[in-house]
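Ticket closed. Logging final result for Inactive pancreatic lipase-related protein 1.
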Amino acid sequence: PIKHWITKPVVIMNMDLKSNFYLILLKLFFVESAINGSVSDNPNDVHFYLHPYPENPEQTIELLPWDKKTLKRFEFRSRNKTLFLIHGFISNSQTHMPVTLRNEYLCSGLNYNVITVDWGLLSLPAESPLTIPVILKSFPVVVQNIPRVSKRIAKFIEFLVDQDFSTLQQIHLVGHSLGCHVAGQVGHRIQIIRPGQKLGRISGLDPSGPSFQHLPLDLILDESDASFVDVYHTNTGILGYLGIMGHVDFYLCSHNIAVEVFAVTINQVVNACKCKHFKDWGLRIYCPCDDENLDIRAGELIPTNGTEGQYFFTTSPSIRLCVPFEFNC
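Final structure:
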């Protein structure tokens, strides 16, 4: 079995805002391996890795853009859903988000074409060790790379559609943190390339808030970017985006937990309930399900037809999903 541990949420106690912000950055953005080289701005440094072997998730095939032979050789399933996993700041294809979700999708039996988008060279700061000043200095540089990354992904999707390897409605983008806004910009670009058409689905796992809170909709993830957009907020107003973004918005507890919760929904049933007022979560009021609330399945298998609104997970407020899970694959 693959074990994933969900970290406890950061508790703010007698700490000024600046110190708390630094603490959260340290907890969320620490990378164990040394980081060498400079932050690239070259879109050719965005790579696409197909995971064709469920029994061996770590074995990947790099898909070179516009290389039809590789797609045919490894039996890219054109009739099946194609999933793009898009990591965020100071990450790459081997970090927590893409690895966790990749493993769960591959053992799910859903038979998706699972592709990890690696834009690590455009999201990693040059200096090592990774200190708070380095992080803060690098963040705006990485944000400026998002249009380059989204354009590269949109072109690759356009290639898949043009060559009949997929349709737009079969494509599902899952982004984390900055990767959510990458996915949103991809969805916006696709509509420019193909007027009147949209991607099938975008799932945003705790969209980044800093630098994005008041930007135009074409630069951030929003419900217009795909036929269905579901968003999982876990650090609203601090590192996460403050506000309603998708057709459906879910509210959780910690910045890292969005990945684990979405991963759980791939192979397990996780329900959420609808509250009458969005302010309930803003005030941290627990919202239990009752006969007047609509109970739905959250995550990967959410019913995408007609589902909308703001939802809250139905776990105990004392646990709030911050517990270990066993994924039996």
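Residues 2-327 form a domain with the Rossmann fold fold (CATH 3.40.50.1820). No further action required.
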